[in-house]
Amino acid sequence: MMREGVWPTHGTFVGILLACAYVGLMKHYGCVVDLLSRSGNIDEAYEFIMKMPIVPDVLVWRILLSACQLHGDVAVAEIATRKLLELDPCDSGNDVLLSNTYAGADRWDDGMKMRELMEDGDVQKPSGSSSIEVDGMVSNCSKDPSLLQVGNKG
User: Fold this and answer.
1) Can you tell me the distance from the alpha carbon of 22 to that of 43, in angstroms, rounded to the nearest whole number?
2) What phi-psi label fits residue 11: left (phi over 0), alpha (psi between -120 and 50 degrees) or beta?
């Protein structure tokens, strides 16, 4: 296209990915869901998921849920969370994303209810951590002392 002086638009790329997905050449449906949902096309991303020829996995639903938080789409966020609860009920990140989506939409009561459900259900959010490599040595940092370690790379 570019050799002919025609520049592709975002829609061109989405169209190509959708065409590839339709003929079964693309195994990473999450890429299409990510492109659609991050660009604000939440409903189109949800419709795409529902028409996928394979059963959507946790990753696809979490991509959609994250975009719902970004764009404040509470209705689809609730659908994605229900699906995630079926597929991966032990991941506290799903509850946190929905709670934050409620908060972002000024639905503070619903956000607080989610947080209370997490506390009542003894849902644990894993500690964050980071690592850095300097001169072949890897150092990890975490608030959880059991995750702290320093050692050689490899």
Assistant:
1) 18
2) alpha
